[in-house]
Amino acid sequence: MRQMILLSLLLVTSLFSANDSTITAATLPADSTGSVAEAELPVQDSVVKTTVQNPEVTSADTVVAAPQNIEQAILAEPMPAGEMVRRARFYLLKALISHNKEQAVQTIEYLRSQYSSVLCPFSGMEEGLAYMHAAVYDSALTALVKERRLFAPKARKAVTYEDQCVVDARSNNLRSSRLIQDELFVYLADNFPKTASQIDSLVLEIQNSSVENFYKDAAPAFVPVVFNASWGRTEASTIQKVSTAGSAFFAKYPANENGAWLEANFVEPLQKRVSNEAKDSNDPIQNHLYTSGVGFEFLSGIGMFAGDLKDEFHHKYWSYYAAVPIQISRFVFTPFLSFGTLETRNNRQFSDVLWEEDSDLNVYSSGISLGFVVFDSRYVKLEPFVGIASAESILPDDNNDYYYYADKPNNNYYRLRKYVKHENSVEYLLGATGEVRLLTIASRNVHAPLNSISLRVKYIAQFLDHDFGYKKIEGVSHKVLAGVGVFIW
């Protein structure tokens, strides 16, 4: 019995010892080497441990690698034509700056093949300028003259996408989505020949190159035409060079289309200009006689009636006159306004109107005259003219009543205001204008416009057929007016 009890105690002790060792192993944290037995861990703990201890990509690695993958994916996509053109333009810029002629020419040829309705690989005169900077002078002159002929005088029609790209840029349509304004655009614009010395240097550079003689002959004639935007202030030496070189080119290559265009639109007009300038004086006033101009004049003076008008009104009256003379060569067109105050007469022998004492009738007229300058000198100018005008008469004061005889001798009176018409007559004018220049201001340029202040004297004979409403009256009005005029001519 005693032995059985001891055996039972040993069995219980061994069971408790096994349970304690199992719990201890399960609850201890794993060390850095993971020495805890895998079999003693729960199933879910085993999964977590495997995930943490054997990662394929860490979070830090993911942040670094993502942009590289996106960049590679983007580069793997097909490149749009617009982006290719922009890259090619930048590539061309580098070639021009480094003077790599072969690379520049290849890039230009590639860009020339990329014109479309939505894209301009070159705009304005960029193609010709690019060839010029690459020292390919034959292609440069061909492209530049072709581009220049898209504009006046006698501009050819823009028929291709390439032509339209030139027109858009030269017409300052820089907002067009087809145009590209990048570093190449700025570079070519900054290196555009702008002065006579720069143009002469470019011509000399072409003539000293190995290009064919045709282009050497064309350079002094066409290069100034291409790079001069306006000939108004062009130096006389440049004009003479273009005139001489253009004539020589046209004589040597009469069948060349561009030569014929140059001869008709530049050489002949410039030769005429040179011929006229040779006749000009150094006196700016002398150069501007019998030429064009515009001005303003304000005159006043006395008017005198003749005929039936003298019986109806006092034969003298005061008149005002304002006009804008516009001279083209010797012809002068003058729109004008005139105002006069007529003093009435209580002359029952002649008039059917019983006017109040010292009554007035206002007469307005507006019209146009055509004059011809028959004499022009430094100080004096004479211009006869003819004209036509429309006149209207207005009673000046609404508070006064005027009466007229409805029938004689019964002396029945009616209110005159009901019968006075406004648009009631046509006037025919004949006269002459004399001008004395009091002050003339000239610039150093003998061909620049002049400014002058003048004393103006004008005689006007007006032939009237005037319907006052109550009576039609014919007569002649003579006016002598004087005043001041200012002119630009």
Structure report:
Strands 1, 2, 3, 4, 6, 7, 8, 11, 12 and 13 form a 10-stranded antiparallel beta sheet that branches. A 3-stranded antiparallel beta sheet has the order 5-9-10, with no helix packed on it. The protein has 15 helices and 13 strands. Helix 10 (196-207) packs antiparallel against helix 11 (213-227) and helix 11 runs antiparallel to helix 12. The chain has helices at 2-27, 43-53, 59-76, 81-97, 101-112, 126-133, 137-148, 161-170, 183-190, 196-207, 213-227, 236-252, 257-279, 284-288, 308-312; strands at 293-307, 316-323, 326-328, 331-343, 353-354, 360-372, 375-376, 380-394, 403-405, 413-415, 425-441, 451-467, 472-488. With 489 residues, the chain is α+β, with helices and mostly antiparallel strands.
Terminal CA distance? 152 Å
Proportion of beta-strand residues: 25-35%
Global outline: elongated
Low-confidence stretches: 9-65
CATH class categorisation of the largest domain: Mainly Beta
CATH topology of the largest domain: Porin
Structural class: alpha+beta
What is the CATH architecture descriptor of the largest domain?
Beta Barrel
Mind describing the biggest β-sheet? 10 strands, antiparallel
Number of strands: 13
Determine the fraction of residues in helical runs and give it as a percent range: 40-55%
Counted by DSSP, the helix tally is 15
Overall pLDDT level: 77
